[in-house]
Structures are given as structure tokens and as C-alpha cells.
Amino acid sequence: MLFISDMRNKIRKITESGAVSSRVFGSTAFTDSIFKRVHAHAKSVKRVKSRCSSKPSAGEIMFEVYAADVRPDEVLCMVGECESLGAWSPERSLPLCDIDFPMWRIALPTSSLPDRFEYKFIVRKREDDGSTIWEEGYNRQFDYFKPSAGEALQIEVRSFVNPDRWRGSGVAVPVFSLRSEHSFGVGDFSDLKLMADWAAATGQCVIQILPINDTTDDGSWGDSYPYRANSIFALNPIYLDLQRVGELSNARERSRFERLGRELNALAEVNYPRVAAAKHDYLRKLYKQQGSTDLSSKEFAVFFEQNHEWLIPYAVFSVLREKFATSNFDKWGEWAVFDAERVESFARKSAKAVGYWYFVQFHLDRQLREVRDYAHARGVILKGDIPIGIGRHSVDAWTSPELFNMDSSAGAPPDDFSVKGQNWGFPTYNWARMAQDGYAWWRARFAKMADYFDAYRIDHILGFFRIWEIPLDAKSALLGHFSPAKPLDAAEIAEYGFRFDTALHTAPVNESEDVLFVEDPARKGLFHPRISAQTTEIYASLSESQKRAYNRLYDDFFYRRHNDFWRAEAMRKLLPLIDSTRMLVCGEDLGMIPDCVPDVMRELEILSLEVERMPKAYGVEFGSPAEYPYLSVATPSTHDMSNIRLWWREDRERTQRYYNDILGMEGAAPVECSAELCEAIMHRQLSASSMLMIAPLQDWLSVDGSIRREDAAAERINDPSNPNQHWCYRMHLTLEELLSSEQFTAKIRALSAR
Question: Disulfide: which of 393, 450, 459, 678 matches 702 by Cβ 3.0-4.6 Å?
């Protein structure tokens, strides 16, 4: 408990222990949107503030309480045993002022209160319907010395925790998948406004999207991969709403682009290379027409001042990429090594070429900020996605190579997505170097995200504990190893009773997968058990006793040996990063999860991801939504999975067990997942104890047989086992059609509310 005296104003201040704010409800997701207070106008706010001063007057006792989890249609009230506090009657309780939400205040005359009394906070509806929510636990106690005449007392009491836990729903959809009547063959930022309208109409509060950073490389289908950005700051030009940037003055060109836009927009899928090329063609013509005017504006001057540190290198990188016809800066000759002064000189001398990229990023920033504000006005937030990796040939790798390990690739060990693991091709992070400046690169990345988003998903959050690192010359991802890790020496291996033979049980990573151990590339003589080694021929050749010895070693290494070590690694990295903004933090924690992960996420209030068909409990086939942790996001599927209808057809035996054991249906499971079955599955997700249920748009659409797509397979966004995936899924109906489907909208709203 902290006592402070403000003798100038004759105010004694007390802060009770335990008055700690919540990262979750204190995030901008709630304070700036979902729970945002809307006051009529400035004069009203001024009048209210005069009644809700942050300081008490002489002869008053002011109570302050941090209460972020109180809905906009609710008011926090104070009730107590004395008559002035209503004598425990909710109808006579005293409302607190929320003008500085989430801080609530009430100032009471000292003369109206006894020397000691008990009290509680309760929640009541602003439009009084008689309902009351009482805070849990023992009564609060006022047992301080009351202020003397001419003095005031200000008390910050312990935070209020609402026992009526808030739960909400949302929709997950890539921006490129949106389709409106006015888009240009791909979803754009303006289309997100229509999606915000639909989310609000259906009672949802979150729109979750995939990464939207610039992925431009060689103009091929590879550029459609949203998780390999060429800049952690720059936005993807393909998401610009061309008409909102400007209209071409040349009538013939304007007509040509209108025809092309209609043609591309009529395609069932996104033709990424054609759309990207067409948009740049349009934008370059528009830049020639109005670029000098836009870049001379006061609005651009502000944008440039706030973003020039990353914008200049990015724009120069983009010009050099075109000049050398490759993003591999190792092939740029004298430009291969970044030099800040030389780059700025180039930007000045090549102002016209570089200015084009300024022009594009300026309009992208403007449009996405408009979307953010539009969504906020409807009580909807945007949830972004932070990829775990960056492109090997990216601006960041060019400007800050010391932050990355360019001699290896990041990936993932085998899981339900890919039995042979995944090699993403990204360089891994040099965490030791990043720590030297307090993870400045990461903090800047998060801060930029906060310009547009109120929540974000950390892709593969396990990478902050340890990353799957694969040597560049490895035959496959199976020959990777966790980094950081504590590999074993020969003596430690022998302690498990395993007769280790280097020549027999290991091999160079570029030669064979049929091994039991992988030698650490940086520390010779130390070894990692090969992941999924039990599937190898050499393991099959072991005696039963040696198999048991190896399995003991294997299980201990992957599930126990590193728990404290990886916990410390994650806390060291994650804490300063999530504290750098007020965004709501969610983590994608699927896959091979160490025991330390749930504890760290709970401690840092990072929402976990819960998928019914990918339970985290060992030996369990299907998760139980009713048992999900509150601080989690429930979902029926993700962009890396088949949607509900496609999953239903993949494994008939598993589907049968789900049909009988989970849905409680009798008899044989239908071959196709009907709209009624989809609704039952979605209802299970919406009934989860999770704070949020965010479902892919395809799964929301699946509950209505008249509106959903006929071919469920065409709704798959990504297959992680396919390294050449084309990210091209697009809605089969327009957002305007979705919004006009009143019966469907009402159905989803009822589902969300229920």
C-alpha cells in the first residue's frame, strides 16, 4: 500500500496493493472500440469532466477503481452498509463516472461517511432493468483515517474484476479473399469497410486478417504468399483501392482499366500476378498524373516525417530490385551491402523513381487508417497477423543483416499440417544481437502494427520459445533442430542406456534422413535426437531394449529437458515486446507444444488458440470447447486447415466418431456435412468458454445451404504441405450480396448472441 501526500493541494493519496490493470481489457481493442464510451459532444464532455474531476475537493473522499471489463451499456456503482451508500440496496447504489474509462471515480462528502465501513462495487444496466452483478469475494473495507477539515483523501482501490465474463465472436478472412462490386480482381482495404458492416450487423466485433505487408518479389505466384514479406513496415500495393487513390484523366485508359477490372473481378479466384501487374500499371500512370501534387501535400509531409526511417530504404530497395531484376541483393554488386548515407543520396538523385513507392505507401497508409476508424465507429476491431519470419531477400535482411542468421532456415517440426515438417525458407533470428538494443527492431514492428490494429495474432508463437532451425543444405525439414537448445554429448546419451555409435546413428544432413541423431552445426560433438526418428529404418532395426532406451531419451529431450530453459527464453523476448503497445495479444500455439508454453501465455495474458480437432491434451482425439481457458480464441478451423465441410470428408472413420461421440447423433454419419450439421459444429465453438470465437468466413457461410459455396474444396486457403501453394481463394458472392441477405444475417446474429 502506497501513501502519498500532496500538501500543495492538501490531498492525501492512497494506492492499495493489487490495483493492477489487465492487459486484455486494458488493450485498445476494448478501450478504443468494443467497450468505448461515446459522449454526445465536446460541451457535454466538458460538463461531465467538471463533475468528474480527477482530484477531490476539500472535505471529500474520492474512490478510484480500474474497471476495464464493464460494457458500454453498463455502469459501475458503489454500494455499502451505510445509508449514504444505499445500505446494501442496489437500487440506491451510487454510479461512478467513466469519463476517463477504464478508470472510474466517485467523490463523496466526508461528512456523509462513517469512520469505518464495508462496501462493494456492482454493475448495473444504464437503462435500469433491475439486473445487478455483484463483485465476488469479501467486502471491501474502508478503515483509513478520514481527512481533517480542509483536506481531501484520494484512494485508488484494488481493480474491479467483472464476474460476468465478456465473450465475443468474429470472422477471419484474408483481405485478398474479399469480393465487392467495385474491387479490382482482389479484395482491397476499402472492402474491409463492407466486412465491418457485416460484422456489426451479425453481432461480431473482430475481423481477423492474414499479413498485409508487401510481398513483391518477381511478379510470380510466389508473391501471393503473405508470410514472406519484403518489409515489416511496408503494406502490399495489391490492397490499394485504385478509385480512392484517384481517377485517370485519359478517357481511353480509364475505359481500358474499367474493362480489365470487371474481367479480373469476375474470376472465381484471385489471379495474383495479373492483378498485381495491372494495379501497378494503373498506379504508375496515376503517379505521373498526380504524384507531385500528392507528395507536396501537408498530409504526405506528416506521413513522411513519421515513417522516413523505413520508407527511404524500402523505396530504394524496390527501385534496385527492378533495376537488377532480382530481390537477391547479393547480386546487386556495389549495392549488395547496405550503406545508409549512400541510400539517402540515391533517394535524392532518383527522386522520381523512389517517389513512386512513397506515393503508393502514403495512400495505403491513408486507406487502412480510414478502415480502422470506420470499423471502430461500428464497435469492430481489426486483428492483424505478425509472421514469425521475414523474407531472406527483404529490406530488413539488407539493412540489418546482423539481426538474422542467414546460414539456416526457419521451419516447423512434423505436425498435423505436414508429416515431414515445414521449411519456410526464412532466416532465423539472432536473438542475442537483438537483445543488445532491447529488441528495438521488434518493438518498432509492433508499434507500426498498432497504427492499424487493436489486436494481433503472433504466428507460431512457439518460435519465441525455440525455433525449428534447418541447415541450408539439409535434405528435408526432418533434419532440423530446435534453437536454442541443449544438445547431448555422447556421455549423456549413454546415461539413458543407449549404445550410441556416431558412424552408425548420424550422417551429414545433406546425405541421409535415416538417422537417429543430428549433430549440432555450431557445436561439434553435441547431438539432437532426430525428430520423428521412430519412423526411420535404422530405428526399426534396433533391439526392443534399445528402442526403449532411445524413446526415454527422446521424450525427455523434447518434453522435459528444456522447459525451464525455453520458459526463460520466451519471457526475456515476449515481455518487452507485448508491453511496447496496448494491442490485444493472441498467439498461434499449435503443434509440438512444450509444457512451459501455457504457463507463459497465462502469465503474460496472451490468448491461446484452441481448435477442436487439434486438442492439446495427449491422447485426446477431440478437444472440449467447454473446457477451453477463458483467455483463448476458439475456432473451428484456420487458414492452414480444411474448412468444416472439407474436413468432414477427409477421414470417414474419424468423422463417424465425431458424429456419434461428440455431436451425439445416432447411426451412420452423412457423407456430406449439411448446413444443419455445420450449424451444430459452429454452435459448439460459440458455446466455448473462450473469450473469443473467431471463425473463417467459409465456416460462417457453411451454416446456410442456400448461400454457401457448392464446392467446399474451392474454399481451401492454404495447404502447408504444398510449398508451391497459390494463395488465391476468393469469396464466391460479393460483400454487397452478403449484406443484403437479411435472413442469413439474422441467423448469424442469433447464433452469435446465443
Answer: 678
Q: How many CA atoms does the CB half-sphere of 239 hold within 13 Å? A: 30
Residue 20 has pLDDT above 90, yes or no: no
Contact 633, 691 (CB under 8 A): yes
* HSE-CB of 114 using CA atoms within 13 angstroms: 14
- Domain spanning 2-164 has what CATH number? 2.60.40.10
pLDDT at residue 726 in the model: 96
- Domain range summary for the chain, segments of one domain joined by +: 2-164
Q: Classify each residue of 372-407 as buried b or exposed e, where b means 16 or more C-beta atoms within 10 Å of its C-beta.
A: bebbbeebbbbbbbbbbbbbbbbbbbbbbeebbbee
Per-residue model confidence as pLDDT tens digits over 133-159: 999 999 999 998 888 878 999 999 999
Residue 211 scores a pLDDT above 60: yes
Q: Which of 627, 446, 582, 693 is nearest to 22 (CA)?
A: 582
Which residue in this structure is represented by grid cell 525427455? 556
Can you tell me the distance from the alpha carbon of 556 to that of 550, in angstroms, rounded to the nearest whole number?
Answer: 10
Distance CA 686, CA 645 (A): 17
Segment 223-243 mean pLDDT: 97
Listed in sequence order, the residues at least 6 apart from 694 whose beta carbon sits closer than 8 Å to its beta carbon are 169, 170, 171, 172, 206, 208, 383, 633, 634, 635
Look up residue 722 and give its DSSP letter.
Answer: -
- Integer Cα distance of 596 and 218 in angstroms: 41
Look at the block and give the residue holding cell 546413428.
Answer: 505
Distance CA 86, CA 63 (A): 16
Q: Which residues pair with 481 in a beta bridge?
A: 469
CA angle 235, 412, 439 (to 5 degrees): 50
Rounded to 5°, the CA angle 738-739-740 comes to 90
Residue range 742-748: average pLDDT? 96
Average pLDDT over residues 108-115: 94
